[in-house]
Amino acid sequence: MAQTKEQKKLHLIDTDIHERVEYEELLPYLEQPYKRYIEDCGWIQEKHMPFTQPAVAGVNRADAVVPDGRPAGSDLPFMQEQLLDAIGHDVGILTGALDPSPSSMHGWYEMAAALASAYNDWQIENWLDKDERLYGSVHIAAQDPQSAVREIERVGSHKKMIQILLPIDDKLWGDPYYHPIFEAAEKYELMIGMHHNEPPIHYGGWPRYFIEWHTLIPVAHMTMVTNMVFNGVFEKFPKLKMMMIEGGFTYVPFLMRKMDQQYRDLRHEVPWVKRMPSDIIREHICFTTQPLEEMTKKEFLQTFEQMGSDEIVSFSTDYPHWDYDSPYEALPPGLDEDLKRKLFSENARNFYPKLAHLKEEQ
Amino acid sequence: MGEIVCHEEDLKPGEMMESTFGRHSIVLCRASDGHYYAFLNRCIHQGAPLSKGKLCGAPAATDEVGEYNFVKEGDILRCPWHGREFDIKNEGRMLANEKLKIRNFKVHVKNEQVIVYK
Fold first, then answer.
1. Nearest CA in chain A to B61
2. Superfamily of domain covering B3-60+69-117
3. Does residue A1 surpass a pLDDT of 50?
4. In 3-state terms, what secondary structure has residue A80?
5. Do residue A272 and residue B66 have CB atoms under 8 angstroms apart?
6. How many CB atoms are closer than 10 A to CB A223?
7. Which of A103, A149, A276, B117 has the most CB within a 10 Å radius?
8. Phi–psi pair at A87, nearest 5 degrees
């Protein structure tokens, strides 16, 4: 895709790009005995979802498969050609492809911790160090908070590691169990990223069809926002912020109203929450755009008006996944430049402390 | 112009009663320290009769997650419907949002009679 004059003005910070590792690429970063469990014993990540992603080519855009046949997202030069150069990204934030997904392992925490370290090293060496536009996410094995903190201390000071991804499982993040992780996050100016994963958190377990699960992703995000706010995480860790990735943002006005109403009625149950939940959300949480529902400009702007802010939403493509949003096509036409600047770059730059230097450079 | 609404001994500290003041239904509360406070007997949220609620205490704001420090026993008027909390010793302001308050009336005790004024 050739750049047009219009495209060059974007200054895009893309808050959700999925790089993909193949297991053999992790082997140089693994010690024994973990290495041989992949090499000799054929370890693979445990899976839970009963569906395939029933798009043209599964989870990925059909045109994002690397020309030599490797999986989409696994080749930096091809990602540069198809995404970063074609769109004209200023910054792309890598969020992993959840395979391996150390925090999703329901046992063998030592292997999970080794995989998280290997993945972080692979990510730094093959992506962050090779393209100045790319920033990364720290992967941890949250099942063992002590090892998770050690891993954050090991790679958290890397100038291009900007957030920590936590597991989507049966223990919500407001639980004090996670406090050592949040403490380490604050220490290294890392934000918390929530990207939905399997298994889901909602009543009824797995629905029968993928379309149901995919429709209800925001339910898991709402669960986590509600949990983090009412469990006082942001009161205890005032520098901590959370990026809600790939849940969209159109549920936010509803959730703010609902939480504020509940707070007025039930404040006494959570006396450690000392402000209106919507105020806490506006100060500590940011939401990525994708997957955008198709909206008119009027509907789109009403959502921001109801949130009381246009500074807590950041654009994301979700490349190379099938429900990718194009920065040039996904937003309703006719938005003013000020709002586009906020969505495309300013809000993300203000959210991540390690992107603040970009302000001076631009 | 004041109106006598009850005898001083009709309420013990921490108790409340429904009464009238002119055309208004009011709730008269006697705080833990023995002072009297009167409010319009209508919650600002959805109009519930506050006199059917509870005069009780509330957990104080805290910096510690999981800590309940129950304070102001007898000074918090809790709505019978949604449980919203109003501090009778702070002009009837809502604990969750002090910008909001129930309408209050002045109260004096004279010759053992509790008198409500505008």
1. A271
2. Rieske [2Fe-2S] iron-sulphur domain (2.102.10.10)
3. no
4. helix
5. yes
6. 15
7. A103
8. -85, -35
